[in-house]
Queue: 2 jobs
Job 1
Amino acid sequence: MKKFFRLFYKDLFLARRLFALLATSVVLFLAAFFFPWLGILPLLFFCAVVVLLLVDLLMLYRTKAGVFARRHAPERLSNSDENEIRLFVENRYPFAIHLGILDEIPHQFQRRDVWFKSNLASRQQKWINYNLRPVKRGEYDFGDIRVYVQTALSLVARRYTIPQAQVLPVYPSFLQMRKYELMAISNRLSEFGIKKIRRIGQSMEFEQIKTYVAGDDYRTINWKATARHGALMSNSFTDEKAQHVYCVIDKSRAMKMPFEGLSLLDYAINTSLVLSNVAMLKEDKAGLITMAEKVGAIVPADRKPGQIGKILEVLYKEKTRYLETNMELLYSTVRRVMRQRSLVVFFTNFESLSSMERQLPFLIRIARYHLLLVVFFENTELRTLSEQRATDVEGIYIKTIAEKFAYDKKLIVKELTRHGIQSILTSPQNLTVNTINRYLELKARQKI
């Protein structure tokens, strides 16, 4: 008996229709004092409400488990992407019901709108889909599914709490990686803004001897093979392979700045994962180094099948630190880890010319032995401020400061170029496309 009443106390909710009927009953009782001709009509109305309430309760509670629900989610979520979550609901009552479904999503999303209304006929099943976009890596705790059931009378609602607690990890954007992977395999990267670069010169990586056709470079004609076959034969070359491509990620406080809910570090991590995968599809070797005031993780360049999985696991655990990058340590690490000339893609951020000049001597040293590509971020908020029209003295001051900082970014690019260092100044949302564009350009021009 105690269990029965506890069930009522915890899982029974009164609906608006019941309150409306009770309010109507009260009005009728009050009106009976002034209009005696109403007689027992208010009492009959109240009794009818009570009977309907009892019938509604009996319909809801005579079936022990009238509703079944289950959550279908991927084994892991992709950071900064829309991840599909599916809810399966089944009506086990012998009559049609109205449902209100509440899914307890992780607190990191700060959403209170994961609430769905639906109608189900007897024994009917239904799927409900919705998307979640995480902006931080780590573990996300999902709670239970709560289903509120009403009959056609809709006087009360019965709540079902279905245990569905689970913990899902949020990894760097592997969905974005797969998207670019499919495009790279089918040679459709241009659909995402990846430019086709005209090849300048040719590779010295010999592939085969083939029959000369009109349009081939006459300088590739193999005269000895031509003499043997009695027909023009030419040498065919292919892209140089097995080049080392290292992504070096700065984890210092400069990468903590958020943009559309995602930190610059997470943008760099997502792009590093995509770039490593594209490099391996191009038959290069991909590696990774993370750095702040001390060395983070090191993944030596390789092209084995499990290399991307290893890089993904390392990137999942990386977090922003709150000190400046130790550039001297970075230089010594690069010299120790990279035994041959490699493409070093350094993801960092400079907010002023002076901050870049402090790191410039070490960048120049790295560029002596490797092809260095420095990737840093454009402050889109400052660009917006500099483009706004100033209407007062304060607006003029803000606009001038914003233009000064934006100009410093352009000076940084010129200074790096003057010392023979490749650079990319990009907005965070265009980081992946611009980085892959530059990698393909450098590869097409045999820079690596």
Job 2
Amino acid sequence: MINFENCEIGNIVIHKVGNKYEGGELTISDNCFLPDDPDVISLLKNYFLSPFKKDAFYNFQAYAGELENNPVYAAVNTIFADAGAFYAQSVTIAEQLFEQSNNPNIKSGELYIVYFRNCNIEEGLCDAVGIFKSETKDTFLKIILNQHTYQLKSESGINIRKLDKACLIFNIRPESGYKVSVLDKTNQQEAIYWTNDFLGLQPSNDSYFQTSNYLNLCKDFVKDIYNKENDVPCADQIDMLNRSINFFKDAEVFSEDRFKEEVVREPEVIQAFENFKKQYETEKEIPFQPTFPVSDYAVKDEKKYFRHVLKLDKNFHVYIHGQRKYIEKGYDTARDMNYYKLYFRDEE
């Protein structure tokens, strides 16, 4: 869990990064700054840090076998070693982003490099370097008092509740590529440009990564294999998804043997699941571990993508959260229609 309650901003610099593909320019600020007004500092902290709530982390990738060959890693590494290098390395980071802004879909914007002190994460207190890009401008109305009459004036500015692209690099495990949290609210192509091309990151093989990907494996198995094409009723598909998500909700540590026994159950389905998992690992390049700590945040994030609704023609939507034994499927020859019989004790 990330906690920024006692975090302090130590330094800020802003550069303007244009779209290199369209002939835009890189405009470098002459100096860093730190606002004197505590209210402005508080607003900036909220703008920069409030979106970071997940436990999904990344690491910097090594280029040509060396982490120092990754430009952003090298710049941040220098900043953590020498606070006096903050400005010079912020320029290096801005230049790297400008070089990667070579696509017509990439928007120009302001680039903020920020130094934070006393970030509280799982490993304890640490400093962090934040890299933020603001691309979206909003129009605001400003009230002006002119000779005892209030008037309105429009201004273009940044909405402090909207942060387009961001990352926080925590000064933890530098030898492994640091611990990095990423935010990108734009489309998939731009996310690749920000996370892969500019920052050069790869997902950390941690509890969030393992939990999230194993749940995706379960969801895709039901969609691709455990489905109607293989004579699996929709109610059974939903039951499999419910058992999967409930298993992770109840477990502190995932055990694949227990998962197969309690969730997948039937030997032929277990075999189909194992075959699908091997193919999934190869295609996605995800090495699953037989045991790992379960991330509650990953379960919460993935739960909303698990289907619980049984749609019957256009007449009924049945939400299935309980056990499969309380729902029974049949066929009425007189009506020439399928039916479901539901068993329950109390009606609310």
